[in-house]
Amino acid sequence: MPGTTIQAISIYKLLVPLREPFVISLGPLLAVQNVVVVIRTRDGHTGYGECSPFLTINGESVDTCFLVGQYFAPALRGRDALDLSGALAELDRIIYGNSSIKSAFDVALHDIAAQHAGLPMYEFLGGHNRKTLHTDMTVSLGPAEKMQADAVRFQQEGFPAIKVKLGDTLENDVARIRAIRAGIGPAHPLRIDANQGWKTADTAVAVLQALAEFNIEHCEEPILRQHFMDLSRVSAASPIPIMADESCGDEHDAARLIRLQACRMLNIKLGKSSGFHRARKIAQLGQAAGLTLQVGGFLESRLGMTAAAHLALTNDAIRHCDFDTPLMFSEDPVLGGIRYRPGGVVEVPTVPGLGATIDEAFLRRAEQVHF
């Protein structure tokens, strides 16, 4: 359709300090370093997408995403924005991998398509808004006393589940969870995420068995993702259900983990899967296999987390949401988008498209390039 021809593409660096360092087993994070993609069509539609690259997980940085985006923009300019499969195939043709920056383009293109269809994103993707989304809140890795204090504060603030970053020695991690349970009590839903920190299957099993008494809902990525062949052994020996995260990037990874019976749960992230197109395939595979699914993210603003929230409404097997990182920002540049309500409730926009944009005044201050 001539009116939906892509007329202009802009790429911006989104840099925002965090309120305090966010520490995981892979290292500390001090600031948001994201990329925003804005795609405009001839008929006046504008699509927004955001990615939050992660050097140690998807092998991308704000600089590589900003540069690779400049390979994509000239190739997409002049194409029909509604030819989603053709446009996304072109990104894969241009360069292998680079799932983070691909996800920003994928989301922006889907934003335009959903606006053109007059549907909110979740409905355009075949979903519904009949379930209420709740986010957990994450306790950063650190001294047991600080982690306990943070967990107590999050409980008092009404978050229905608390996620705890681990991945240290058995003794230190058990001490952390013991302190947190002493602070929040034995019943409040508690989840853990090692971010590959226990490395080997034997170490992971030992820690997980030592944590059995603390009533933990699930554990994300206990061992190095390169050791995915050992994950089924960890799952079989663990008293805590295992959720694959870093080892589940796209639908091919999901199919492999399912075939290996490696885990009972999958964590889907748009930045790992290259966007909605592949994320939905992961969800379909997981649902068919009877797995429980979570949708999470990296350090996206409310723009990227709005996309994640729409995804969470597309599949009934998605039962957990990890949408807390925008609450860690020192500044919120997003207009519209998801809203955080009491009790960890996440309210999703019902307007056509994504329903979120970035404040133009903020973008004017950013490093940028235009096509």
UniProtKB/TrEMBL annotation:
Cofactor or coenzyme needed: Mg(2+)
Parts of the chain that traverse the membrane: none
EC primary class: isomerase
Keyword annotations from UniProtKB, A to Z: Isomerase, Magnesium, Metal-binding
Keyword Protein biosynthesis: no
Keyword Manganese in record: no
Lineage: superkingdom: Bacteria
Residues of the Mandelate racemase/muconate lactonizing enzyme C-terminal domain: 144-241
EC number(s) reported in the record: 5.1.1.-
Cofactor note: Binds 1 Mg(2+) ion per subunit.
InterPro entries tied to this protein: Dipeptide_epimerase, Enolase-like_C_sf, Enolase-like_N, Enolase_C-like, Mandelate_racemase_C, Mandelate_racemase_N_dom
Pfam families assigned: MR_MLE_C (PF13378), MR_MLE_N (PF02746)
Family: Belongs to the mandelate racemase/muconate lactonizing enzyme family.
Name assigned to this protein: Dipeptide epimerase
Native organism: Hymenobacter ruricola
